[in-house]
Specification:
The protein has helices at 5-15, 18-22, 44-47, 52-61, 70-76, 94-113, 116-128, 146-159, 170-183, 204-212, 223-228, 233-240, 269-279, 299-313; strands at residues 30-31, 34-39, 65-69, 132-137, 163-166, 186-190, 217-222, 244-249, 251-252, 259-260, 285-287. It is α/β, with parallel strands linked by helices and 315 residues long. The chain starts with a helix and ends with a helix.
Length: 315
Amino acid sequence: MAYTRRDLGKIAMASLPLAGAFGAAKINSKFHGVQIGAITYSFNSIASPDPEAIIRAYVEIGLGEAELMSNHCEALAGAPRAVRGGGRGATLTPEQQAARQAQQEQIRAWRGSANAATWKGVRKKFNDAGIEVAVLCYNMNDNMKDEEIEYGFSMAEGLGVKAISTSTTLSMAKRIAPIADKHKLLVGYHGHDATNDPNQTATLESYDTLMAYGKYNGVNLDIGHFTAANYDAVAFLKAHHAKITNLHVKDMKRNHGPYKPFGEGDTPIKGVLQLLKKEKYDIPANIELEYRYPPESNLIAEMKKCLAYCKDCLA
């Protein structure tokens, strides 16, 4: 059979590794239909001074989905680095104060110049490594101005994520709701187990309150903290799955207990993951590594253990 030059070109392109032709092949960390990923918060210890190390870690571990922290997103986009100096409670020297003020002005100017292309460039770095960026974690505090809230939404839209996750107060959730409605972008409010603070997302009533503020107010369900608050993560997921942006997967003890290695706490990790599998909920389950591991181990090894544990739970 004779081949034309065009045919030979097609064959050559087809035989190239995917990384060479179109970027890296997608890393598959979806097991039985359940997407296992991680929040980049887990990689804080290796993110500075080299934020690209986060992407390399995802590849080494075999994680195909990321919940990207906004500070890591900015670092990967080339934002000015923070000036360090003075520990907690320490008084800064006049030189340190001046340097910090100048750096804050640089960051403000840099953020003002950021646009959709800035964030698309960050997404491309992950996509070229075979990693999907599904959620932006942009923590919003009560002191933020509306334009700072809008900045987070513009970052999310530039990245092309399906949702924003955030740790904040109920009073902020009420402020954010109309902005989320305007952008038609779901915001998942991260819960903790501070059930004694009425302005925190922690009690069942607080979840109901924040979801009632707006159509696009949802939940980033941290199944560890939810368990530490003595609630049933499986039942909550079943009842509110349509409003859940993503899960944070960690193991904790009940009664406001500590973080534990996967399988050593009270969090029903297997029950939650099996529910995702059974009901085919399209909700990423993102590992958040917070427990202390022995000095003879390391971050990559522990994340691999967490990923293997989640995979076994879905078998």
